[in-house]
Amino acid sequence: MDKYEILKKYFGYDSLREGQEELIDSILQGKDVLGIMPTGAGKSLCYQIPALMFSGITLVISPLISLMIDQVKALNQAGIHAAYINSSLTENQIVKALENAKRGQYKIIYVAPERLETSSFLDFASVADISMVTVDEAHCISQWGQDFRPSYVKIVQFVSLLQKRPVISAFTATATEGVKEDILCILKLKEPQVLVTGFDRKNLFFKVISMRSSKQKDQTMLEYIRQHDQESGIIYCATRKNVEVVWELLQSEGMAVAKYHAGLTNEERKQNQEDFIYDVKSLIVATNAFGMGIDKSNVRYVLHYNMPQSLENYYQEAGRAGRDGESAECILLYSPQDVMINRFLLENKSAPAVSMEDLALLQENDEIRLQKMNYYCVTKDCLRQYILNYFGEHQMGRCENCGNCLAEYEEKDITDICKDIIRCIQETRQRYGINVIVDTLLGRNKAKIRTLGLETLKTYGIRKGEKESFLKTIIDELQLEKYILPTQDKYMILKLSQSCNEILNGEEQFFIKVNKEAEELQTKGDNGRSKRKSDILTSKGLELFEILRKIRSQLAKEEGMPPYIICSDKTLTDMCIKLPFNKEEMLNVSGIGENKYQKYGESFIEAIKNYMGGEKISLCYENVLQESEQGILERKKGRKEEFRVTPEMEENISFSEKGTISDLVNQLNDLRDEKSMKKITGKYIFEKLVEEEYAKEEFINGFQQKKVTEKGMAAGIFNDIRISQAGNEYSVLMYNQEAQRMVVKKLKEEWLM
Q1: What average pLDDT is seen over the chain?
Q2: What is d(CA 107, CA 134) in angstroms, rounded to the nearest whole number?
């Protein structure tokens, strides 16, 4: 059989997704591959299909016991013989599995990396015909990844002991550029086919809700869950204590909820996980110990009660929603206190077995990732764009499918407030954190403020009329733009970068986006996001869906496996749309292959025929796609287009003998049609200049400074030394006419294309 016959017979699909065919073909040609693909993009098919076409065995190395169990169950359901070897088996069971493997009973064997060093597995591998070694969750091999596992580094040694070198394939959903290079280097991939299909999960809706108290979090969480009471969801917490508190709260509200954390017994964790997987309980509250490798396809939302430690962690955990490709929501309930909790957890986590020098670098990397995660929570820009940029997939423009894009913002000039904040930090000699600075600005009569003598400062009470939350938001934004640099310790002392002089001296204005309405949780409606079943199916279609769902649950109980392994919600929805009355029609349903039809097809066909009375009358809204497209067009009316340099603007630019980027940006923004076009920012231009090595940022004497490179000097950029109001020297990047024209040309022809 060729790859498409295998795809249809065993997995029930007619076509491959983006990137799958390229990776499969490369593997079949004997090439090593590295596939970086988002959760739900079908990574497993990329190695499972070649595994069935190779003559020998494929070993899949995975750190995730639950993933192995799920994958093997799914493969056996599809009629493919597979096995797993990990700590969930007894030694006798492992011996039996290896004996069966030697006899050629299995085409695919999942194995934990620690098992590669055992004598029994090495004995098996020395005589087995191993065609391919697949490294799943390949980011675990990198010390700079969020899930570094020393056992992964030993995979190369295991491969070197085999009689012949097999094809090596590696896959991950989250890898920055540095982690990608580590995977390629440490695994010693030979002239590999590297494919990055993109990190975007278009069916996921992202939103951050900022709040200052746990009471607000609880109220918001309860309201959201009540609005989604018929759906399956995960609530992630940072600590075991929070899991227990949230679980007890949901229990008291009469909700069917499970819990999962490392403090429970193995039996409790297993039972609670199964209750969730088998839809006995629609909710689970968990630490990040839960979910890796869980292939439950119908999770409709993931709530984060606390901010995770990194964007890698967040995107991986949020990615457990919507694995069936249907719309799902990822909501993060953010509080500044989350930063302190995570910093404490990072400081007290067990250290890997590495040198002191490497350990210091790992800790520094943890802190950087934590700051980037915090910036995600406070930014008012597109959340999807922020995530994709973090993973190296740079994009301009809004996604129109996240909380920030759909919120109504207005820009407010807060330059004067920023000046007061900076002066207050200066007056306090950069010795305090955010709470002391805000209390001083508000003029609060606190014992601590009096003890420190801060009531005598010029900035004491200078912002008495402002809200505390608004001042803290501004400080967050100043951190995001690197005007304020918090120290990397648990006290987070606020330090100033030299760029602050540009604000103090009136060379730079500072704007903030302010939500026009009070922050509130939005639920999905007709706003451009992926449609739910209720948007696709009529009321009769939804009735049939529930009938088929009950049949799936009954079949799952009979088979002793999770319902989503029988088939996904997406497959049931497709049945309601296509209404199959015979085998040929059922095999055209997405996700139904030969083996699944033989086992379950007739049960679903009989139910559909009975419900429809033998007649095929459409149960879906035929114009649903046209409505969606029209809705998007209507919503986009009145939205401002992205900034671009028009011929009229270019013609009217006045290039000075020398000037700053702010001077040029102000001109460009003044020349644009402000009613129809967004602004351009100096930050965006500077980031592009750094990206193309015209400029760089360096830490000098504890301050972050902008510097020109040799390439930049050749283009007409130079450093100009100035004196601040406090009498200190600082450096500003200046641009001659040639450099200014270069920037405009690049904006027009490259950067904004």
Answers
A1: 85
A2: 13
Q: What is the pLDDT of residue 626?
A: 44
Indicate the SS3 state at residue 751: helix
Given a cut of 50, whether residue 9 has pLDDT beyond it is yes
Per-residue pLDDT band at 643 (split at 50, 70, 90): confident
Same domain, 400 and 437: no
Is residue 633, in this structure, part of any structural domain at all? no
Could you tell me if 541 and 571 lie in one domain? yes
**For the residues of 73-124, what is the DSSP string, one character each?**
HHHHHTT--EEEESTTS-HHHHHHHHHHHHTT--SEEEE-GGGGGSHHHHHH
One-letter amino acid identity for 58? T
pLDDT band at 515 (very low <50, low <70, confident <90, very high): low
In a domain, residue 620? The reply is no
Report d(CA 56, CA 77) in Å as an integer: 21
Residue 681 and residue 55: Cα distance in Å, rounded?
A: 57
Domain end, chosen from 406, 427, 455, is at 406
Domain C-terminal end among 150, 170, 196: 196
699 and 727 housed in the same domain: yes
Number of domains in the chain: 5
- Structure tokens given for 535: 């948007």
Same domain, 322 and 471: no
Instruction: Give the CATH number for residue 137.
Output: 3.40.50.300
DSSP 591-645: T--HHHIIIIIHHHHHHHHHHHTT-----B-TTHHHHHHHHHHHHHTTPPBPP--
One domain for residues 21 and 162: yes
In the predicted model, what is the mean pLDDT of residues 334-347?
83
pLDDT for residue 589 is more than 50: yes
Angle in degrees, CA 88, 89, 94, rounded to 5: 145
C-alpha span between 486 and 471 (Å, rounded): 16
Maximum CA extent, the chain: 88
Residue type, 121: F
Examine the pLDDT at 104 and tell me if it is beyond 80: yes
Q: Which domain holds residue 716?
A: 647-751
> Does 427 share its domain with 489?
yes
Residue 628, domain member (yes or no): no
Assigned domain for 71 exists:
yes
In this predicted model, what pLDDT tens digit does every residue of 735-746 receive, in sequence order?
A: 999 999 999 998
Q: Are residues 365 and 253 in the same domain?
A: yes
Most confident residue range from 197-201, 269-273, 509-513, 563-567: 269-273
Residue 564 in tokens: 């989503």
Q: pLDDT tier at 26 (50, 70, 90 boundaries)?
A: very high
CATH of the domain at 571: 1.10.150.80
CA 98 to chain centre: 37
pLDDT confidence band for 700 (50 / 70 / 90): low
The mean pLDDT value for 57-61 works out to 95
Q: Could you tell me if 302 and 230 lie in one domain?
A: yes
Burial 346-385 (b: 16+ CB within 10 A, else e): beeeeeeeeeeeeeeebeebbbebbbebbbbbbbbbbbbb
Distance CA 335, CA 341 (A): 10
Coil, helix or strand for 41?
A: coil
